[in-house]
Amino acid sequence: MSMRLDHTHDPAARSWVESANQGGCAFPLQNLPFGVFRRAGSTEAFRGGVALGDCVIDLKALTAVGGLSGMAEQAAFACANPQLNDFFAMGPLAWRALRHALFALFKADDLAVRGGPSRDELMRCLVPQREAEYALPAQIGDYTDFYTSVDHARNIVKLMRPDGTLSPNFQWMPVAYHGRVSSIGLSGQSVRRPVGQRLAPGRQEPEFGACAKLDYELELGIFIGVGNEQGTRIPVEAAAEHVFGLCLLNDWSARDIQAWESTPLGPFLAKNFATTISPWIVTMDALAPFSMAWTRPAGEPQPLEYLALTAVGNQAAFDIQLEVSIETASARRNGKGASRLSRTSFRHQYWSIAQMVAHHTVGGCNLRAGDLLGSGTISGPGASEAGALIELSRAGQAPVELADGERRSFLEDGDRVVIRGWCERAGFASIGFGENRSEVLPAKWE
Ligand code: MN
Q: How many whole angstroms from 408 Cα to the centroid of ligand 1?
């Protein structure tokens, strides 16, 4: 199934939920991202919801008022669970049926002709987002983090190796490592600075202590919808049918621990203490207007056949705007705002999502509904487009100046890292991901 546009991408479509129509709203009718929520502080069961304007559409409540039928109703029943795995596993026809049904129910001018539940009944299915709290949208079985930005890779090798050449495999495959699921948390969480071993420059023996080079990584999280049987592969042309949607992901990284531990098997304690994702998953259907051609510059290695995007290459990249800000404890005390650290787009990524999925499964590894892939740090070509502090501060050689006069080489306790993402294109409604915000707590020694 290729990316396709339909009436749910009509920029003129408006919702009778007025907040969805306001300029700058992340969640207009054309977006309809999925998450798991309940009323904050309540003992209600968590269940699936869809963001619209400043509200959450309670899908369990919606099934009770009888506004849905057929595949859309079955999909909404699956969303009444506290995890969306069963809904993901239903596949793109069910995802699209529910999207289309919600679009019709909440579109401004369809109510009179539609029949079905009254507007009062539908309004009772809405929960204000300010009264909601969220849970992880799926039971994540496995998490894999990629390394697919060539600008990130070039920035890092320049810092780490005098010759500054990319590792030779980078241009031939989307490199990745298997990550840790138990420490994946939602936006709003506090992340304790990890402790571990690191080797000080010029020393022969490591020391043990709190991470001194704590960093974030700007990434997108990719939720797998439909998996594959072990021993089979997902062809690159079919990958779009297997991906449910995207969220904002912060891959917290302890650079000093990472530098000492990573040879020869890759990241371990440097990455496994926390990963933070945003609560809303923006579907690939909602992202269709922002897809664009994936290209590999002439003169660089062209992908091997199993990674070649011949049929779907014109829609395999996505122009997703991404921004990282930092809000320090002192900026908060002094009433100063957050400082923007970088801004870039996912369009620059060297490997596409489809290629990540194809490569992950080419040896017969089975992906399952609810599995999470990290895109890898997203850096663009410009100096202000780097997706991690280690790049922006050149490993501490050039600390970043913040708006309130503070400087940062790496994160300090009390810092809040805020990632935002959105898509905009002339002729289409802008849609957003919301934000991914989390705070660094001091290390705990025992
Ligand atoms: Mn990463």
A: 20
pLDDT value, residue 1 = 38
| Contact of 37 with 56, CB cutoff 8 Å | yes
Q: Are strands 143-147 and 47-52 parallel, antiparallel or unpaired?
A: unpaired
- pLDDT at residue 110, as a whole number: 58
Q: How far is the CA of 95 from the centre of ligand 1 (A)?
A: 28
Q: What is the C-alpha to C-alpha distance for residues 116 and 68, in angstroms, rounded to an integer?
A: 9
Residue 232: both structure tokens together: 């089979």
Q: What is the rounded distance in angstroms from the CA atom of residue 303 to the CA atom of residue 236? A: 11
**379: CB partners within 8 A, 6+ apart:** 149, 151, 152, 155, 218, 342, 344, 348, 385, 386, 387, 388, 391
Closest CA to 18 of 106, 98, 100: 106
CB 232, CB 367: distance < 8 Å? no
* CATH code assigned to 15-135: 2.30.30.230
Q: How far is the CA of 349 from the centre of ligand 1 (A)?
A: 13
| Main-chain phi, psi angles of 421, to 5 degrees | -145, 145
pTM score, two decimals?
0.97
143-441 folds as Fumarylacetoacetate hydrolase; domain 2 (3.90.850)
- Write out the catalytic residue numbers: 152
What is the C-alpha to C-alpha distance for residues 233 and 342, in angstroms, rounded to an integer?
37
Closest CA to 23 of 439, 422, 446: 422
- The domain ranges of the chain are 15-135, 143-441
Instruction: Please give the Cα distance from 417 to 193 (Å, whole number).
Output: 13
> Does residue 98 sit in helix, strand or coil?
helix
Structure tokens at 102: 């919600």
Q: Rounded to the nearest whole angstrom, what is the distance from the C-alpha of residue 376 to the centroid of ligand 1?
A: 4
Q: Each residue of 133-163: pLDDT tens digit? A: 999 999 999 999 999 999 999 999 998 887 8
